[in-house]
Amino acid sequence: MKGSVDYNRDNPGADATEDSLSEFVVGPEMNGGRLDKALAALMPSVSRSRLQCWIREGAVLVNGRPARRVRDAVLSGDVISVSAQPTPEELAFTARDVPFETVYEDEALLVVNKRAGLVVHPGAGHWDDTLLNGLLFARPALAALPRAGIVHRLDRDTSGLMVVAKTLSAQTSLVRQLQSRSVKREYWALLRGQAPASTLIDRPIGRDPRNPLRFAVEVPGSMREARTRLATVNRASCGGRVISWVACRLETGRTHQIRVHCESLGLPLLGDPVYRGGLAPWPQDGTPLAGMKRQCLHASRLGLVHPETGQRMEWFASPPQDLARVMDFLGFGPLDRPVSVFEEALGGKPL
């Protein structure tokens, strides 16, 4: 159905643009047609699927009343008002009040303790509720930096420490430190099975061809170098099976690296919904294990050279309540450690 614009009160004959209110009068050739089809003819630069979303969101009025159904019929002479809505991609760098915990801050650096469930970068399903959006809200000056100063990331359900640059020079320094592998990143993980006392996992990682949500070691196609150092801190028994508390040091920062490397040893992370970490059929009713709905992984320690002072700095974050309850139940502790448990586990010996 080909329609025509009788008038557009903002700019006659023009399509709506973002953050604009546009109004159209339905012509006789559109009489009785579907609302979404009429809008597609009136606003050819906007996709029909996007227009349908605007209708469902209440951004389209017909004769001053919200139109909620895309199949509603329009009549000749109806006035359609459209409030153009930003795309998800445009929301990605929008400031939003997304709370986060600040561990340390000065003129060059911001160290945050990311909670489990918080996505770091905007993407499908999380366009404006991420750490990046929260940083732009709390520190508007970060809008001048690439990725709002973020130089590394944690998986959505991994908790713990991250560093954010507040100046371009600091960001350049941190990126170089990450590339040279001089940034100390220590993670605590609970694994299903008996982990070795210490080991170096040096196996390249690529996307799993059988499941686009997973990564795997030594898969055909594009792979990237990945190195994880692992040291066992303690072990416990649950339901007749061994659970190992390990400390991991990253030499590279690949997506899901610790999760993939540990699974490759037959030691998936406890609670991991993607890499065979489910608790069933273990006895769990009435225990903290029953409430653990994510991988037991926490970025506990972060160390780096301050970009401006040259001073070596280090921070520690205890595990959050859900993980702490599980570790207490298993008899692991103390959880507030003044020194690196990775180094303690090795007893000062090199891995």
Automatic annotation (TrEMBL):
InterPro entries assigned to the protein according to its UniProt record, in alphabetical order: PsdUridine_synth_cat_dom_sf, PsdUridine_synth_RluA-like_CS, PsdUridine_synth_RluC/D, PsdUridine_synth_RsuA/RluA, RluA_PseudoU_synthase, S4_RNA-bd, S4_RNA-bd_sf
Record-given protein name: Pseudouridine synthase
Family membership noted in the UniProt record: Belongs to the pseudouridine synthase RluA family.
Claim: Lipid metabolism is one of the keywords in the record: no
Catalysis: reaction(s): a uridine in RNA = a pseudouridine in RNA; uridine(1911/1915/1917) in 23S rRNA = pseudouridine(1911/1915/1917) in 23S rRNA
Keyword entries, A-Z: Isomerase, RNA-binding
PROSITE patterns named among the record's database cross-references: PSI_RLU (PS01129), S4 (PS50889)
Leader sequence residues: none
Lineage: Bacteria, Pseudomonadati, Pseudomonadota, Betaproteobacteria, Burkholderiales
